[in-house]
Design goal:
Layout: H1 2-36, H2 47-71, H3 82-98, H4 111-114, H5 120-145, H6 149-161, H7 176-182, H8 190-203, H9 208-230
Amino acid sequence: MNIVSSRLQIINIIKILFATIFTAVCFLSVKAIYDLAPYFDIFPKWFVPSFSIVVLVLNTICLHLTLQVWKTDNSLRASSGASSALLWLLMVISFICVTAVHGFYPFQRNVSQVLDAITEVLKINYGLAIFGFTVSTLLTILYIFTNMKTPAIVGLMVMSLFFLIPNDDCSNPFNYWWIETIGASPLMYAPNLYAVLFVTSGLLNIHSKITIVLTLCVCIGSLILGIGHQLHIIW
């Protein structure tokens, strides 16, 4: 009875964490659309409509996944094998991809040389990238090489909550409102929150193959957005 009760508690924790992450990323992404609207002319004509459609599609998918997670019961089992390893690999890589918007810092060899030139907020930003990369790597090892699969999933979701800490003070339309209101924006790692939802779903055997594709899309989308910014194609 105690084992069953403990398992139900863990499943309930997973459900609550999943719903919390979904609510947070949904709010952040929809608000980003709202914040970009007044600055439509700053971007290429296709960008804001395309960004809005992508966000709405992602949130619809994540809503479906949230409902699927909440339907799970005591029969829930974490996946194993190549698909789960690939999901974890993409999760780790996503932290490198999202930093494309900042020239792949802090994953550059000369990062120590630029630390004195950046703001304290960006130091938090860099720290979160390293934190996410390191912790997700350790959780990957824990998940693949031990029997602690469920704790690793819970750890992944708990880790993702740290990315809601405001961490970006770069002045652009995505961040204007946040900077004026609280001094920094929490938007930078929103793609990683989506990745966490997709990876968690796949690891729980919910649309495993599709979630691999979705997580890959998050990585590619982050690269395109970041490199597009670096080349001044988007903003």
